[in-house]
Amino acid sequence: MILELKDVSKSYEKIVAVDAVSIEIKEGEVLGLVGPNGSGKSTLLKIMLGIARPTSGKVLVNGEELSEKGWKEFKRSVGYMPERVSFYDNLTGTETLRLFARVKGGRLRSLKGVIDRILSEDVLQRKVGGYSKGMRQRLNLAQALLNEPDFLVLDEPTSGLDPVGIKEFYDILDEVKSRKKLTAILSSHILAEIEDKTNRVAVIKNGSLKAIGRLEELCSGMKIPLRLYITISRKDVFLESLLKKEGAVDLSYKNGYLIASISRKNKLELISAIMDEKDRFSDFSIREPSLEEVFFGVH
Amino acid sequence: MFTDATRAIAHKELSDKLKSKWVVVIGSGFALFTLVITYFGGAPAGVSGFMSIDASIASLTSLVTYFIPILALTLGGGIIADEQEKGTLGIFLASPISVGEFIMGKFAGLAIALILSIVAGLGIAGAILIFKTGIDAVGPFLVFVVNSVILGVIFLSVSFLISILLYERTKVIALTIFVWLLFTIIYDLALIGLLIITKGEIGISLFSILLMFNPVDIYRILNFISIGEFQVLIGLASVELPAYIRTSMLLGISLIWIIAPLGISYYYFKKRYLE
């Protein structure tokens, strides 16, 4: 399945929430959607889910614009995990899943293996009112998987989870992906998550698509420099001048490192130059820019 | 229309109300009120004890016209705000159910809960009345209960419209109270004012039409014309109505009162949440 947005805009009276966004989501890929609060991410997700109609532009599913009936059929293969869902305190986990299973036309029984991995039987029999935030997020994931979706939309899926919970969440997601081909959109403010778990990243700001592509493509396209980390015990003026001579900029010392930004083009020459002075330091590494640097570079 | 999804949503709403003992508490409270009213309904005339069925219905009509509308309005007033606050509205909207299925499921579940509480509340008093006054009271009392249920379902439908038009809870509460006051007090006062200003020259046809715009007046008239010969001097229902005002017509208008707010709710729900 391929979902395509062609020049999609969405306005609410005078406010432009989404401005001429074109995105194609390929079958089997995980697309990261990143942007600050109010950037239009949620509105874009709603348009992709058929919850909001664009003011202009087209939404195509497998090359076709969908009718109301078509959207209903499309939603049979969609799993949506909204941000901040508290569910119903007076229902048990099982009752909650049973409700949404019937609403989605899914069957709770057939997903027992997956559900068990997400929430234990003991927890499922308890009322949701007694769940922790992490348990509610797991329940949220479980309901999103109820109809064995082909297309999964996750809005800030690890919000409220601790690091162990985050790891477990992605382990479960990997397991789900291993069972069937899954296309997913992952919206998150935790940029490190997006970096590791997505095939491509789309950066949204003020409703516009600022950049889309693989992280390496975004970095090279935006000419974001690499970061050189030299392990060094004390300040070394000679090493600093050598780096500057080879085109390094933004030199600084932090936590036992001499850090510098270096161009991708002449990194080999620079490495060769500093290796001639290898007695002055104990180690070095070159790192790709983080998504924060790409993200903040866009902004 | 009553798909599995609709039934699932209806079941959830009904079981919520049963589990929270809402039906039991409201039904019990209502039953207590009705018993008190039927026993002490003649107190202003210096009479106590269970009266005839028509006199009892006359007393109960006054209770019902205030109690059931506010009950129904508060029952349905928070349906959308609740789902939004819990974050579950997005899950429903992204699911393969239509807006109609969603609204019908919610409405059906709450309507059943409301009907159970009305029947329980009135039924207990009715059983005692029938025991005291005789088997002939069964028919009129059943009709009274059905009319009361219709009134409740009308206001439940109106509450859905309020809930969908305003998703902020405080605004919903404010409009609910206003709507209750409008239909139980303000509207009839306005009609009385109109009668006074026109010195009674308004014309019975126009006056009858104006009564049809208030479900509470429709309910009073339904009781008046479909239950016994007792001259029920309850507000404006004491006016002599044209011959074409019949039970079938009033039931038809009541049906419109149920369907129209739901239809408008459907339209506004789609407009607000899906466009």
Secondary-structure element order of chain A, N to C: EEEHEEHEHHHHEHEHEEHEHEEHEH
Tally the helices of chain A. 12
Number of helices of chain B: 11
Oligomer: heterodimer
Strand order of the largest sheet of chain A: 6-7-8-3-9-10
Number of strands of chain A: 14
Largest interface, C-beta closer than 8 angstroms, per-chain residues: A-B, 30 and 25 residues
- Rg of chain B, Å, rounded: 20 Å
- Fraction of residues in β-strands of chain B: under 5%
**What is the average of the pLDDT values of chain A?**
87
Instruction: Give the overall form of chain A.
Output: globular
Output the structural class of chain B.
mainly alpha
| Radius of gyration of chain A, taken over Cα atoms and rounded to an integer in Å | 23 Å
N-to-C terminal Cα separation of chain A, in Å? Answer: 32 Å
Fraction of residues in helix of chain B: over 70%
What ranges of chain A have pLDDT less than 50 throughout 5 or more consecutive residues? none
Order of helices and strands of chain B: HHHHHHHHHHH
| Helical/strand content category of chain A | alpha/beta
Mean pLDDT of chain B: 87
Report the helical percentage of chain A. 25-40%
- Beta percentage of chain A is 25-35%
